[in-house]
Specification:
mainly beta, 11-stranded antiparallel β-sheet, 6-stranded mixed β-sheet, 13% helix, 38% strand, FlgE_D2, cilium
């Protein structure tokens, strides 16, 4: 009997050493979760069960449990490296076979798919042709490396303050090359359908009775007809609009006098609130000669025109200032980098300053994570004990946050494992001693005469 008990103890201690050694071996394995030996005692039983004074029959390895407590998050500066801070697993696909992992080693393959270091494709929500995320449509995540198409400008939002203390210029007529013929000026880049940049310049001339004249040129030329200029002075003819202000210095809601820039009225009150529209711009290019000859560059403006929103502009007794300006056009852009936020959204950054959502990483969680079946390569699959996965985006429900440019280290504590190894070694020695002692007793009986 003692031989079997001692033998079961040796086997248990050996299993404990194997598990501890495996933990130590994977102390630097990203996403690894330590295991522990869970032992059970044994009793010899008859048909009627064990008696109250039954002696034990040894020990049995009942289960190898995995501890899914959080590992430390270490920064790597690689945008596609990802660590999970909290609950959840990355979902990967190996030709349709779904596996789950905490190891966030990710990169791209030759087709642009995001893959882990085993070549398994990362799963997530993809975007449609309009660049909008499709929640619920889980697929292989892919980075589009093609250049971003340009966008023709359709809107300019601008707020300026015109200095009410200034006087009307004495130099006439207006000449953009002569600063004495206007009070203030500003400019902003706009873009045509091919992504060519053009400079829209505004020149403000103080008038009478709280009014200002705004002269508008694009690339220094008339927006609608780049060849149009004064026959005498050879100065480009600008688009002009009169901007009225109230006695309190706010932009007036009255009618705007202009034949070039259309006023856009409030749909409810049918009054002007400071929004103008340029809908006949012809993008032009110069031949570089002296004098230069201007002609259409083959591109077009936004078909809906360009709205110039100047609501909030003022006429106060302070220096001229452009307090805000924003336009929505841009030139073509090359992919320059990636960013992933803590909700898993993947943003592509382009050289034109724009960004675009390319997908969203999803995470999966289980009712019983200890019931997952380990598959090696730091991955698991679901089982009947784990239950079915609950899939969602990071930071939703009980799922953890995603940290880009970082990896979750192994949760193995080396000092604890070394102590456990010493304990397992002592158990092995003690059980071997039990067998040795039983052998000595047996030998004594054999030697009886």
């Amino acid at each position: 009997m003692s031989f079997n008990i001692g033998l079961s103890g040796i086997k248990a201690a050996s299993s404990d050493l194997n598990i501890t050694g495996n933990n130590i071996a994977n102390a630097s394995t990203v996403g690894f979760k330590q295991s522990r030996a869970e032992f059970q005692d044994l009793y010899a039983a008859s048909v009627l069960g064990t008696g109250k004074n039954a002696q034990g029959s040894g020990v049995l390895l009942g289960n190898v449990g995995q501890l899914f407590n959080q590992g430390t998050i270490d920064s790597t500066q690689n945008a596609l490296d990802m660590g999970i801070n909290g609950n959840g697993f990355f979902v990967t696909s190996n030709n349709g076979a779904i596996q789950y992992t905490r190891a966030g080693y990710f990169g791209t393959d030759k087709q642009g798919f995001i893959v882990d270091n085993n070549g398994y494709k990362l799963q997530g929500y993809t975007t449609n042709d309009q660049g909008l995320l499709q929640p619920g449509v889980r697929s292989d995540l892919r980075i589009e490396t093609a250049s971003q198409a340009p966008k023709a400008s359709s809107s300019i939002k601008q707020t300026v303050n015109l200095n009410s203390t200034q006087t009307t210029p004495t130099t006439t007529p207006f000449n953009p090359s002569d600063p004495t013929s206007y009070n203030s000026s500003t400019s902003v880049n706009i873009y045509d359908s091919q992504g060519n940049a053009h400079v829209l310049s505004q020149y403000f001339v103080k008038g009478a009775n709280n009014s200002w004249t705004m002269n508008v040129l694009i690339d220094g030329r008339n927006p609608g007809d780049p060849t149009k200029e004064d026959a005498t002075t050879k100065v480009a003819t600008p688009y002009t609009v009169t901007l009225p202000f109230t006695s309190s210095g706010a932009l007036d809601g009255g009618k705007v006098a202009s034949t070039d820039l259309k006023q856009v009225n409030n749909a409810t009150t049918n009054t002007f609130e400071g929004v103008l529209k340029l809908d006949n711009w012809v993008p032009a290019i110069s031949n570089g000669g002296t004098p230069a000859t201007w002609a259409s560059n083959g591109a077009v403006a936004n078909p809906a025109g360009i709205t110039l929103d100047m609501r909030g502009s003022t006429q106060y007794s302070s220096a001229f200032a452009v307090t805000s300006v924003n336009q929505d056009g841009y030139t073509t852009g090359q992919l320059s980098g990636l960013e992933i936020d803590d909700t898993g959204q993947i943003f592509a950054r382009y050289t034109n300053g724009q960004s675009k959502v390319q997908g969203q990483v999803v995470l999966a969680n289980f009712a019983n994570v200890q019931g997952l079946t380990p598959m090696g390569k730091t991955s698991w699959t679901e089982s009947s004990e784990s239950g079915q996965p609950v899939v969602g985006t990071p930071r939703s429900g009980t799922l953890g946050a995603l940290q880009s440019g970082a990896l979750e280290a192994s949760n193995v504590d080396i000092s604890t494992e070394l102590v456990d190894m010493i304990v397992a070694q002592r158990n092995y020695q003690a059980n071997a001693k039990t067998i040795e002692t039983e052998n000595a007793i047996t030998q004594t009986i054999i030697n009886l005469r």
